[in-house]
Amino acid sequence: ILNVEQSPQSLHVQEGDSTNFTCSFPSSNFYALHWYRWETAKSPEALFVMTLNGDEKKKGRISATLNTKEGYSYLYIKGSQPEDSATYLCAPISGGSNYKLTFGKGTLLTVNP
Amino acid sequence: NAGVMQNPRHLVRRRGQEARLRCSPMKGHSHVYWYRQLPEEGLKFMVYLQKENIIDESGMPKERFSAEFPKEGPSILRIQQVVRGDSAAYFCASSSEETQYFGPGTRLLVL
User: What is the pLDDT of residue A1?
Assistant: First the structure.
């Protein structure tokens, strides 16, 4: 069972602030890392799948980086908007299986207008 | 293009009854996964299925739980003789390649 840590657990920012949060995972036997955005009462929405050390992916104002050697990924949101309010989940996959997502508990982001 | 569909969205059962949760994957997806979120916990993998095959059920409780993905029709997660501890949100995801797309979940409450 992978030990996945996300920090902080929750975060309150003002509209327009930029923010970032961390996902830590075991670096050994790494296969891929998934990021999801989960709004209350909706389905988790896939943001990124990252596989290579040093990878950087971007989707609009959201971007993510990956360091597989030290076992962490950062998610950045530039110019936060109230609609960015959600729980952001990371889920690494180890080499033992290339499909079994092991989710962290998430970072709950609240963006105040 | 409809996303992953799950029904029912909410299900109430009394202890000892059976619960059947359905998942229709996205069109063209042949891989289905079930995850469970217990109260105050994160999503946990239960089972991975392809059409007519269980590939990995390592996350399924050993008793009372079963899953299938028949050649025709939705994937079914079946819980027999439910107990209060089965109360949780059950999510299904489907994929054709690496990204798993999630449904809205079924919230099961056992009285």
Answer: 66
